[in-house]
Sequence to fold (216 residues):
Amino acid sequence: MKPSAATLDTLWFQALSLGAIVLAASAALASAYRATAPAIAEAAQRATAASLAEVLPAGFADNDLLHDTVEILTVDGRSLTAHRARKGALVQGVVFPMRGKGYGGAIELVMGVDRDGRITGVRVIRHTETPGLGDKIEANRNPWILGFAGKSLADPAHWAVKKDGGEFDQFAGATITPRAVVAAVHEGLELFAAHRGALLDETAPGNEQAGITNEP
Ligand SMILES: Cc1cc2nc3c(=O)[nH]c(=O)nc-3n(C[C@H](O)[C@H](O)[C@H](O)COP(=O)(O)O)c2cc1C
Fold:
């Protein structure tokens, strides 16, 4: 049966109305995004700055770490942004993010390493580990994560949790989470060692004058 002219008119009207509603909603979303994007970006910058400061001792740097960055490539080809901590021109250390694979998913952390390859601090910034089990990696729940400060590739000799013959404590009933963090931090130290020259900006004129070499 052929639709009547009135039915066709109704269908056209509904299609056009729907199109208009979709367009209006898209425009409203776009304008809301434009209005909130700067505030979101600013909040993200503040969060990054806070986590950078958390893994460095007070007075360690006098530069703006947020905007003093260098890109390096990880072993799996990912680009990683490291923040340089300087006193004058001399790079005293770097802060960069690392990622481990925990029980509940990715564990994102940030770590600071001084120019001698010693860890200045590590903090977990995001994770989905089980509350009461794996979440002891958070500094505000347990001091465990503070135990990385001062460690380097050579110290301890075996980077593992005690259950695997290493020196880092695991948690009662939760070995997967601390094992993942230990592995990620160790990987971060290897990354630092592999890119030390670039990270410490050793070809920069200021640092050349300081007589810095690539030797540890
Ligand atoms: C519901 C549930 C949640 C768990 N959450 C965690 C967790 O967040 N982190 C963790 O290390 N283990 C967690 N476990 C325990 C692990 O399955 C595992 O038994 C434990 O990490 C010991 O690992 P291991 O056998 O390698 O020593 C959880 C287990 C269950 C049943």
Q: What stands out?
A: The radius of gyration is 25 Å. The pocket of flavin mononucleotide is lined by residues 103-104, 129-130, 133-134, 163, 173-177 (CB under 6 Å).
